[in-house]
Amino acid sequence: MGKNVMLKVSGEQLGSEEYNFDMAMAQQVCSVIEALVDADYNVAVVMGGGNIVRGKKLHKNGFTNQVIADEMGMLATVQNGLFLNEVLNQRGKVEGRLFSNIPVESVAERFSYQRAQKYMKDNRAVLIAGGLGKPGFTTDTGVVAQAFELHCDTVIKTTKVDGIYDRDPEFHKDAKRYERISFNDALANQEIQIMDRAALAFAADKAITLVICQPDPEVVLAVLKGDTKKGTIVS
Ligand code: UDP
To answer: For the domain that residue 29 is a member of, what is the CATH number?
Structure first.
């Protein structure tokens, strides 16, 4: 029986604030999902919404009600879910099933543990929008909570860079990449912002391993098997 894995797709993996929905980027994410199913993993996916709106940023820009800002953020993740699920289904290799943790029944099924488990076992990809379904959280927290609920002992977070660095590699040429790092060390280094602290702490508490790498099917499969030449494992 295949292992359950969870993939976190940030909004920036699907587009930018300028150009929200990028077909080529969505195809790349789909190729990762297909490779995982092909390698006999049972796959669930949580989408972020940062390509459209982030609650915190909207709030910082002067929109005072953070709850409404977060509600807008959660709805952004539903749009990403509709987008990714449709691109995946059009490719015709792996069937996607979209769930939402906020009620939007006319566009996505309400999340159900039983149905999600069944779809995953049937080699369908379960896409989950709406984060945790509550304001005040991010989809990073959503993804680890959802991984726990769906018995996934690993969360794969694909990023622009090839793993976790001791400081931001975009600004520091001499930044060093970790091949493996403990949750304690990741939490202790304020420069590491791969996931928010609440998400890291929850993953540590539930012993959920994090795999950080670029959205390339071969790289994802290699790092999942423990080859850290092109990625970082947090455990
Ligand atoms: N959000 C929320 N509750 C959740 C998950 C997400 O309120 O459980 C809102 C929050 O405003 C967040 C936005 O949805 O900024 C989009 O999610 P996120 O920022 O995690 O997207 P990503 O950075 O992964 O693209």
So the answer is: 3.40.1160.10
